[in-house]
Design a protein that fits this description.
The protein has 388 residues and is α+β, with helices and mostly antiparallel strands. The chain is 29% helix and 30% strand.
Length: 388
């Protein structure tokens, strides 16, 4: 081998006088490396806010939501034991995430917590028919469908996993003045004696019907997606101020109750609406503070995750997981807001195919000991993108 290295240059040198000078070989410019494919920080199909639910059995939940609400499964990921640990479904225009309960890692279902501070508000073409389909599939009635003073035909139910759903069809458009007039007529008097008397005297259509709105042309009002998250909080006014400071939320609507508490409020965050209200434990509406946790996480996609995360923690949110580049292609961190609701703040930084995600997850678990998926991996699958 050494002889070859010495003799080859020598032989070439001896050939030069005999053959004359050789022209220099042509120089070639290397092909430039292809530009990386641009990545949309908010993956296709997602809005700013996506509800993420904890359920006891993901596959059973996917099946129920298909029967009840016409949901289609767009992605699922098996866990170490082969059962589905995460899935994403689509209802109308909205994606929802489902995670398998893992009490050891703090992911508790409504059954384990004894309730939920969240309601999934869903606008549909026919609230009565959808309500009945959900009941036939195994849901439990909460309040029957009826016309409400705010212009919706509306009812509430609880799914077999303990998550509460509000089903609505928009039937009347109202001006802010009409809404206020109706609210005043619909609210019971503060005096219990007057309230009892008013209830006894109630006959025929409710008084608020005297204020006539305009028949709606669309069963889903402007600005709403099919599914909108509504949160019950221990202090709605404080929550509103936090969401403004942390996420740039904008006021959309505020309706105080007769006792001065927030009966209903709406904020816009990016392209999504977030509803919230004060808790009313006597009516079954409990906050995460009262329950000691939440089976719902708000997954939030943003175009600048570093700025959003810093802003949220600076506004009073508690860091639960530092920003990290995760195996599914997102830069992701978790913040718990003062109301006790977890927010997964994310930005897509890399496109990863579903099969690559699974391999990356296995590699991560192997590197960390090969046991159960680590906490960040369990939270991680919440952001897996079926469109990748």
């Amino acid at each position: 081998m050494v002889l070859h290295r010495l003799t080859l240059p020598l032989a070439l040198a001896l050939l030069v006088p005999a053959c004359g000078p050789k022209p220099a070989p042509p120089t070639t410019t290397p092909e430039p490396a292809p530009e990386p494919e641009p990545v949309d920080p908010i993956p296709e199909g997602f809005f700013t806010l996506t509800p993420q639910l904890v359920v006891a059995d993901v596959d059973t939940a996917v099946e129920f939501y298909g029967k009840a609400f016409g949901a289609t499964k767009v992605y699922s990921m098996p866990g170490p034991d082969g059962t589905t640990m995460h899935a994403e479904i689509k209802i109308g225009d909205s994606i929802m995430m489902l995670d398998k309960e893992n009490v050891d890692q703090g992911m508790k279902s409504p059954a384990t917590l004894g309730g939920t501070p969240g309601t999934l508000m869903m606008y549909v073409d026919d609230a009565d028919a959808t309500y009945q389909a959900a009941m036939d599939a195994g849901a439990r009635a909460w309040t029957p469908v009826e016309e409400m003073f705010w212009g919706d035909r509306y009812g509430e139910l609880e799914d077999p996993f303990g998550h509460r759903w509000a089903l609505a069809t928009h039937v009347e458009d109202l001006t802010p003045e009409q809404m206020q007039q109706r609210a005043e007529l619909a609210m019971p008097p503060a005096d219990p004696k007057k309230a009892k008397k008013a209830k006894k005297a109630k006959k025929g259509p409710p008084a608020w019907k005297e204020v006539a709105g305009t028949p709606a042309t669309d069963p889903t009002p402007d600005a709403y997606h099919t599914v909108t998250l509504a949160l019950t909080t221990s202090d709605a006014n404080a929550a509103i101020e936090f969401y403004k400071a942390a996420f740039g939320a904008q006021d959309k609507e505020l309706m105080p109750g007769p006792d001065g508490k927030v009966m209903h409020a709406e904020l816009t965050i990016g392209d999504s609406v977030l509803m919230l209200s004060d808790e009313r434990p006597d009516m079954g509406y409990k906050s995460a503070t009262t329950l000691g946790g939440s089976p719902i996480t708000v997954h939030m996609y943003t175009t600048d995750v570093e700025a959003t995360f810093t802003q949220a923690t600076g506004a009073g949110g508690t860091e639960a997981m530092a920003l990290t580049n995760m195996f599914w292609g997102d830069r992701y961190g978790m913040v718990v807001d003062p109301a006790g609701i977890s927010w997964g703040v994310a930005m897509r930084v890399e496109i990863v195919a579903p099969e690559q995600m699974e391999e990356r997850m296995k590699a991560q678990m192997a590197a960390e000991g090969g046991g159960e998926a680590p906490a960040d991996a369990v939270e991680a699958d919440a952001a897996a993108d079926p469109a990748s």
